[in-house]
Amino acid sequence: WYTHVMATIEQIEKVLDDEVRPVLRRDGGDVEVVGIEEDGVVRIRLRGHCSGCPAADITTEQVIQAALVGRYPEIRKVAVAPPEIDEETLAFVRSILNKSKS
Length: 102
Hints:
The protein has helices at 9-26, 56-71, 87-101, and strands spanning 29-36, 41-48, 77-80. It is of the alpha+beta class. The protein is elongated, with a radius of gyration of 17 Å. It starts with 8 loop residues before the first helix and ends with a helix.
């Protein structure tokens, strides 16, 4: 039987550097690779102006996914990971929630 060898983070980063990031950076955005799952899903996080952009789904599917799947057919899909929340923001939110309980 034949087993696909999954693309590495380095290979994915190269495609992103060569084909995707120049497009995103023109609009003040960027992309971060969060990880590659065994089922062929590449998890990304959109940065800068791309984060929260109404066209993020289109960018993910038509630009990022198209570039990666075109180069590495074993990649099934590109999915956007939830945004990170830093500790300072979490502490702030907790303080607000604790005040509302009082």
